[in-house]
Amino acid sequence: MADEQSLEPKILIFADDPERKPRLYACAKCGSVHSPKIYLALEEVRHATAMDAARDCYTCKTHNACQYCGEQCSKSFTACEACRYQRKLDAATEIPDNGGPYCLFDGDTYFMEMEEARDFGAEWVSPCNVSYPRIDADNVLENLLDDMHEDASTDDMKGVDEFYAAVKAFNQAQDCPSYFGDDKRKIRVPARAEKAS
Ligand SMILES: [Zn+2]
Ligand SMILES: [Zn+2]
To answer: I need a surface site. Which of 11, 31, 50, 102 has the fewest CB within 10 A?
Structure first.
């Protein structure tokens, strides 16, 4: 397998070109071609890049090496799952415990209490953004105007003030929250021993 992967790319030329100028580079195994024309670089660099692309054929390869740790990873990623998680975690701003609810960092498991996160075995959680169902009254009216004659305005409608009032009352009555983990921020889950405080 390693030998097959290291097969040198085939260089394609025009049959009637006396200079035999390289035009395309093809994977020696499956024949996928790579054109130097698609790269924005100096002629020489373009050819080297197309050659590399043919050598490192996406169709033929079964996996990538993680760019950070070198471990095998899915060929649709340049880094393994653990390194991608670590980088996301490193980039997040640490904040103090905000009382919850929490979301497993970079996950979709939610906890109302910090103890639940700790029992789950989580090391890091994210705070949550909370949202409630909302109707945007202006949006609704704009949609209606789109279906009316060209220079129509809300002045051509009846009951607009009542509509705004009804939407406002509807929005204010909503009490079912939805939580979304904010993975730009992180909270360290305290170890069991620290719980006493
Ligand atoms: Zn190939
Ligand atoms: Zn890695």
So the answer is: 31
| Ranges of the chain whose pLDDT falls below 50 | 1-5, 195
The closest ligand to the CA of 77 turns out to be 2
How far away, in angstroms, is 50 Cα from ligand 1 center? 13
Q: For the chain, where are the alpha helices, taking DSSP H only?
A: 2-5, 43-55, 81-91, 114-120, 137-146, 160-173
Helix axis angle, 160-173 relative to 137-146, nearest 10°? 140
Distance between Cα 30 and ligand 1 center (Å): 4
181 CA distance to ligand 2 centroid (A)?
24
What is the predicted pLDDT for the residue at 39? 86
CA of 73 to the centre of ligand 2 (A): 8
Q: Helical H runs in 1-155?
A: 2-5, 43-55, 81-91, 114-120, 137-146
Radius of gyration of the CA atoms of the chain, in A = 29
Tell me, what's the pLDDT at 192?
Answer: 78
